[in-house]
Amino acid sequence: QVQLVESGGGLVQAGGSLRVSCAASGRTDSTYRMGWFRQAPGKEREFVAAVSSSGKSTYYADSVKGRFTISRDNAKSTVYLQMNSLKPEDTAVYYCAADPNRRLGPHNARSYDYWGQGTQVTVST
Questions:
Q1: 48: burial class by Cβ within 10 Å (0-12, 13-18, 19+)?
Q2: One digit per residue, pLDDT tens: the chain, 125 residues?
Q3: In whole angstroms, what separates CA 106 from the centre of its chain?
Q4: Pairing relation of β-strands 58-60 and 46-51?
Q5: Alpha carbon distance 48, 39 (integer Å)
Q6: How many CB atoms are located within 10 Å of the residue 62 CB?
Q7: Whole-angstrom Cα distance, residue 122 to residue 67?
Q8: Strand ranges, E, within 1-118
């Protein structure tokens, strides 16, 4: 079993930056693919970014490409999402997820077996 705990969310003005973190514990494995998803009120959960086990490959939703950067520190069992040039439409609960088997593509939430509780990110105008 893997436990994921997100932190670092908060309130930021449009154009600002924020970094959210995801600490993994339990039966962690550096071979897991890791991803970030988000869910805004009244909307479905959507893919934001993912990183391969080595950290060398990254994947982004078109809506955040060029503004967000995902990274991981396997020694600390932690994944980060650096968010720059934030927009009000980035407001959502951000979830960290772990994909041990990589059954589906990195954008597919169904591929991820473990999820954190989420952290709220609010971008004001």
A1: buried
A2: 899 999 999 999 999 999 999 999 887 677 899 999 999 999 999 999 999 999 999 999 999 999 999 999 999 999 999 999 999 999 999 999 999 999 999 999 999 999 999 999 999 99
A3: 12
A4: antiparallel
A5: 10
A6: 6
A7: 16
A8: 2-7, 10-13, 18-26, 33-39, 46-51, 58-60, 68-73, 78-83, 92-99, 114-115
